[in-house]
Design brief:
The structure is a homodimer of 328-residue chains.
Chain A (H helix, E strand, L loop, with lengths): L5 H8 L3 H9 L6 H14 L5 H8 L4 E5 L10 H16 L3 E5 L4 H15 L3 E4 L7 H8 L4 E4 L11 E4 L1 H14 L5 E5 L5 H16 L6 E3 L4 H14 L5 E4 L2 H14 L4 E5 L3 H6 L2 E4 L2 H16 L9 E4 L2 E3 L5
Parallel strand pairs in A: 1-2, 1-3, 3-4, 4-5, 5-11, 6-7, 6-8, 8-9, 9-10
Antiparallel strand pairs in A: 10-12
Chain B binds a DNA duplex (30 and 30 nucleotides) through helix 2 and helix 4.
Chain lengths: 328, 328
DNA sequence: TCCAGGAATTTGATCGTTCAAGACCTTGGA
DNA sequence: TCCAAGGTCTTGAACGATCAAATTCCTGGA
């Protein structure tokens, strides 16, 4: 099986290399009849463009890079993985491929950008886990490298396109559900103030309560089942009339469930992220539309890469959905 | 910031392109002093080889491909994700990058191989989820394309290198643990016969029981919490003296736990895969050394890619470990 | 002093594609 | 009849690296 190049196709179709290239890249400049002939030759020979050669000439690789977390073990770790699955699908459909990398910290990640850009000519990056004071976005923006973030730029100037899930509306929906089923004293179990995502989730709960002219207490602890259980015990003990808890994660929710069971309290619980754990134990949870988010990220990237970038960056905010199970 | 090529470096160091190339690829043919001078120039300029150009000449891309499952939702889905994390790490250390792809079925996957090979000149593939009658391995082997499987070639002729976890020894360890803690009637909750992995897990349990001259019953059902619960109910009802269950997955184990609780039976349960769910609910589970497996896969691949392939394929069988928690 | 022979370095060609520019046809209006 | 203007197709050069062969530089023995 000889290697089939553009020259092979050209010979077979009786045209020049460039004409074949034109059929591939700018079909409209080639006469109908010729175009067909070339297409047949391509099909017969099973020709495929060699990306490396194309890339050398055009500087574009049709590759996008995403970071994969080193080896997170938590209940919530799977969220990014699910996003990754969606992104790989969406990229494939758009003719791109996803390349993975790991990095220990933001600076290391930036070093990796340099490496990937110069070695592999990466076309674009998708960033996840954006946070306050994130140096990555400004580094990329400063070099005009196409990128999209999954997660809005917390605090940073809003100069790039992003996709995010409306965290607040998720907890609002959760709280409203609890209100609708008769709960009147609804607490919130979240993370310490300061993380954008966590604050938003708390905010959504507070907003729903406010709209119903109700009050509720909240706690902020590091994520985890045990920390969640401890915090929930505290909350439930301090407020005997609390009958429901909205939680910022499934881990916390699981802890809350444990605490309530221990204390013999009947307490509805709603988690966040709809992880495997939630599905397994029947925990009602707020579900992020990760596949859709990935698809939208890819859409935005294509805009950037095709040069038809809108003058202003685009922001996509997706509504999460509430998955009802036994716990609420 | 001008683009730095090998020619830039050569000029700066006062040598020819080829000498720079030699410093990079075959340092021993370059005189010590020259080598140093070139290395300095490389460092000063921040030069990095352009993979596309190198690849065009050498035909090697330093890229390896792995399939990522479309978007599996189950409790057990995360196993492959964790393997993927490890592989990305190991590949990075060895100077390779991981490229992802998805495929719907084996034939589609083979089509993707063709695409990836001709378009991106992939160096190697890592296959997961090997199964009986897997057409992928023979396709790759027939074309002399380097690959390793994570999972042994069930049934197929054993002509390639692979890494696998010793499933049987995992359930053996689990069963022995139960025996050591006094259980005498230990059941097994697994999948229908025919899947290599499932059969091996059952086999490990049976072996341990046999060594202790004991008997036990087993059930085989599709993976899932509900199916597991149903099967466990059946087993426990039929055998009032069963006090422990070894399960082929955490999903089944979770179901077993549910069933036992419902029935008011005190029953030890051990799952398999040490998923997030197991950690979350305190389920004792057999843990696969996924990071190590990924590392070994990478080692085998490097052997193949560096041409120092052993004449016979290498097989690596890793022992899993038992993670003790509350349920056993 | 000269030369053989190995070590160190350089030169030209090449990988497969696309860009830029030029060549070749048609067609139609002057 | 001739030429301008498009439309269509072809030709060389270039991208940045490595291979293969050629060249220069050394060293030491005759």
């Amino acid at each position: 099986m000889e290697k089939v190049t553009i020259a092979t196709v050209a010979r077979r179709a009786g045209v020049s290399r460039q004409t074949v290239s034109n059929v591939l890249n700018t079909p409209d400049v080639v006469r109908e009849e010729t175009r067909e002939r070339v297409r047949e030759a391509i099909a017969e020979l099973g020709y495929r463009v060699n990306q490396a050669a194309r890339q050398m000439r055009t500087g574009r690789s049709r590759l996008i890079a995403v970071r994969i977390e080193p080896a997170n073990d938590g209940i919530n770790g799977s969220v990014l993985d699910r996003f990754l699955h969606g992104l790989t699908d969406a990229a494939g459909l758009a003719g791109y491929r996803v390349m993975l990398y790991t990095a220990a910290g933001d600076d290391d990640e930036i070093a990796t950008y340099e490496e990937l850009l110069s070695a592999y000519d990466l076309d674009a990056f998708v960033l996840t886990s954006t946070h306050h004071g994130d140096p990555r976005t400004s580094w990329l923006a400063g070099r005009d490298i196409p990128f999209v973030t999954f997660g809005r730029p917390w605090g940073a100037p809003d100069t790039h396109s992003w996709v995010d899930v409306d965290n607040a509306s998720g907890t609002t929906a959760a709280t409203e559900r609890l209100l609708a089923t008769g709960h009147r004293r609804i607490g919130f179990l979240g993370w310490p103030a300061g993380s954008g995502v966590g604050d938003a989730r708390r905010e959504g709960w507070a907003r729903a309560l406010g709209a119903a002219h109700l009050l509720g207490s909240s706690a902020g602890v590091e994520d985890g089942v045990d920390t969640g259980a401890a915090a929930a015990r505290g909350l439930l003990a301090a407020e005997p009339d609390t009958t429901a808890l909205v939680c910022a994660s499934d881990s916390l929710a699981l802890g809350a469930l444990e605490a309530a069971r221990e204390m013999g309290r009947d307490c509805a619980v709603i988690g966040f992220d709809d992880t495997a754990v939630a599905r397994a134990i029947g925990l009602t949870s707020v579900s992020q539309p990760l596949a859709e988010a990935a698809g939208r990220c890819m859409d935005l990237l294509r805009e950037l890469l095709d040069g038809r970038a809108p003058s202003a960056p685009t922001h996509v905010l997706l509504p999460p959905s509430l998955v009802l199970r036994q716990t609420a």
